[in-house]
Amino acid sequence: MVGTIVHQLTDGASPEELKQAGLGAYYTDHGWGVYPQAAAGYPFTAAVLAVKGDPIADLQEDLAAEQKARATYEKLIDLCADDPDVIDPLKFLREREVVHFQRFGEALRGVQDKIATPKFYMNSMNNMNCMNNTFNNISNECNNDNNCSNN
């Protein structure tokens, strides 16, 4: 969306106007096309996506990414304070980052709660044998000691 806003702001600008606005190097490399890059000119790469395959680590990365995006939108809003047509979509995007941060936080709490939940496992082969016998309609009963006894 930010790329679209930049495109709309520069649509119809001459190369000389782009140069005067400090976009000469950008125009030289990309013309009027929208090229995803950081404000400092570094192109977007997948290297910025940090994934470990661990739900807690990955959710922490997601939380940080949402906060970084929110901060970027706030800085863009500061730079465009005199243009409500630019500020309104940026405010929408900033609000969306806040909601995403809240949802990732809820997911993280859910994962942490799940990890903290005690796990219960069957403690002996007698239990498994008793279950197998029951499923096979064999007349065995499990007593309170989890031992199988034949009738």
Radius of gyration: 29 Å
Low-confidence stretches: 137-145
> Helicity, in percent?
55-70%
Total helical elements: 6
Which geometry do the CA atoms define? elongated
Q: How are the strands of the biggest sheet laid out side by side?
A: 1-2
CA-to-CA gap between the ends?
73 Å
Average pLDDT value? Answer: 81
What fraction strand?
under 5%
Say how many strands there are.
Answer: 2
* Largest sheet, strands/sense/barrel: 2 strands, antiparallel
* Strand-pairing-aware structural class: mainly alpha
Spell out the helices and strands N to C: HHHHHHEE
Write the layout of secondary structure elements.
Blueprint lengths: L1 H9 L4 H6 L3 H7 L24 H25 L4 H33 L8 H11 L4 E3 L5 E3 L1
Antiparallel strand pairs: 1-2
Throw out a few tags for this protein:
single chain, 6 helices, 151 residues, two-stranded antiparallel sheet, elongated, 60% helix, mainly alpha
Task: Give a verbal description of the structure.
This protein has a domain at 1-44. It has helices spanning 2-10, 15-20, 24-30, 55-79, 84-116, 125-135, and strands at 140-142, 148-150. A hairpin with a 5-residue loop joins strand 1 (140-142) and strand 2 (148-150). The chain has a two-stranded antiparallel ribbon with strand order 1-2. By secondary structure, the protein is mainly α. It contains 6 helices and 2 strands.
